[in-house]
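Lab notebook, bench 4. Still working through the backlog of constructs that have no structural model yet. Next entry is a single chain of 88 residues. Request: give me the C-alpha coordinates for it.
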Amino acid sequence: MYKITNNLLDINPNQYLMPGHSQTRSNHPHKYRQISTSHNYYKYSFFPRTIAQWNRLPSNVFAHNSLDTFKGALQNINLTIAPFRHLQ
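Model written out:
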Protein backbone atom coordinates (compact mmCIF):
# COMPACT_ATOMS: atom_id res chain seq x y z
CA MET A 1 0.00 0.00 0.00
CA TYR A 2 2.93 2.36 0.72
CA LYS A 3 4.16 1.94 -2.85
CA ILE A 4 0.72 2.64 -4.31
CA THR A 5 0.13 5.66 -2.07
CA ASN A 6 3.51 7.15 -2.94
CA ASN A 7 3.28 6.39 -6.68
CA LEU A 8 6.14 3.90 -6.62
CA LEU A 9 4.07 1.42 -8.65
CA ASP A 10 2.33 1.93 -11.96
CA ILE A 11 -1.09 1.73 -10.28
CA ASN A 12 -3.30 4.79 -10.18
CA PRO A 13 -4.44 5.06 -6.53
CA ASN A 14 -7.43 7.19 -7.54
CA GLN A 15 -8.78 4.27 -9.53
CA TYR A 16 -8.96 1.95 -6.49
CA LEU A 17 -8.71 4.09 -3.35
CA MET A 18 -10.80 6.91 -1.91
CA PRO A 19 -9.59 9.16 0.92
CA GLY A 20 -10.94 8.35 4.38
CA HIS A 21 -13.95 10.13 5.89
CA SER A 22 -12.67 11.61 9.11
CA GLN A 23 -9.50 12.76 10.77
CA THR A 24 -9.09 12.22 14.49
CA ARG A 25 -5.98 12.22 16.59
CA SER A 26 -5.83 8.42 16.46
CA ASN A 27 -5.96 8.45 12.66
CA HIS A 28 -3.47 9.47 10.01
CA PRO A 29 -3.92 11.60 6.89
CA HIS A 30 -3.17 8.64 4.59
CA LYS A 31 -6.33 6.78 5.57
CA TYR A 32 -8.56 5.30 2.86
CA ARG A 33 -12.27 4.61 2.80
CA GLN A 34 -12.95 0.97 3.64
CA ILE A 35 -14.43 -1.04 0.78
CA SER A 36 -17.60 -2.78 1.88
CA THR A 37 -18.55 -6.08 0.35
CA SER A 38 -20.72 -9.02 1.29
CA HIS A 39 -18.83 -11.55 -0.82
CA ASN A 40 -15.95 -13.38 0.87
CA TYR A 41 -14.06 -13.86 -2.38
CA TYR A 42 -13.66 -10.08 -2.63
CA LYS A 43 -13.70 -9.26 1.09
CA TYR A 44 -10.38 -11.06 1.56
CA SER A 45 -8.73 -9.80 -1.61
CA PHE A 46 -5.88 -7.27 -1.58
CA PHE A 47 -7.59 -3.87 -1.37
CA PRO A 48 -10.37 -4.56 1.17
CA ARG A 49 -8.03 -6.56 3.44
CA THR A 50 -5.06 -4.20 3.14
CA ILE A 51 -7.04 -0.97 3.57
CA ALA A 52 -8.29 -2.21 6.95
CA GLN A 53 -4.72 -2.90 8.09
CA TRP A 54 -3.35 0.31 6.56
CA ASN A 55 -5.95 2.46 8.31
CA ARG A 56 -5.04 0.97 11.71
CA LEU A 57 -1.36 1.92 11.43
CA PRO A 58 -0.22 4.58 13.92
CA SER A 59 0.40 8.04 12.45
CA ASN A 60 4.11 8.10 13.36
CA VAL A 61 4.79 5.34 10.81
CA PHE A 62 4.02 7.82 8.04
CA ALA A 63 6.69 10.30 9.16
CA HIS A 64 9.21 8.28 7.17
CA ASN A 65 9.85 9.40 3.63
CA SER A 66 11.40 6.29 2.10
CA LEU A 67 10.28 2.70 1.67
CA ASP A 68 13.20 1.38 3.74
CA THR A 69 12.50 3.64 6.73
CA PHE A 70 8.78 2.87 6.46
CA LYS A 71 9.56 -0.85 6.57
CA GLY A 72 11.85 -0.25 9.54
CA ALA A 73 9.05 1.56 11.39
CA LEU A 74 6.74 -1.40 10.74
CA GLN A 75 9.18 -3.73 12.48
CA ASN A 76 8.48 -1.89 15.74
CA ILE A 77 4.73 -2.55 15.53
CA ASN A 78 2.87 -5.70 16.47
CA LEU A 79 0.68 -6.13 13.40
CA THR A 80 -1.32 -8.99 14.94
CA ILE A 81 -3.07 -6.83 17.54
CA ALA A 82 -5.83 -4.38 16.56
CA PRO A 83 -5.27 -1.50 16.98
CA PHE A 84 -1.60 -2.07 16.33
CA ARG A 85 0.71 -1.56 19.29
CA HIS A 86 4.40 -0.66 19.42
CA LEU A 87 6.66 -3.50 20.49
CA GLN A 88 8.71 -2.94 23.62
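Notes after review: The mean pLDDT is 82. The first helix runs from residue 2 to 5. Flag for follow-up if needed.
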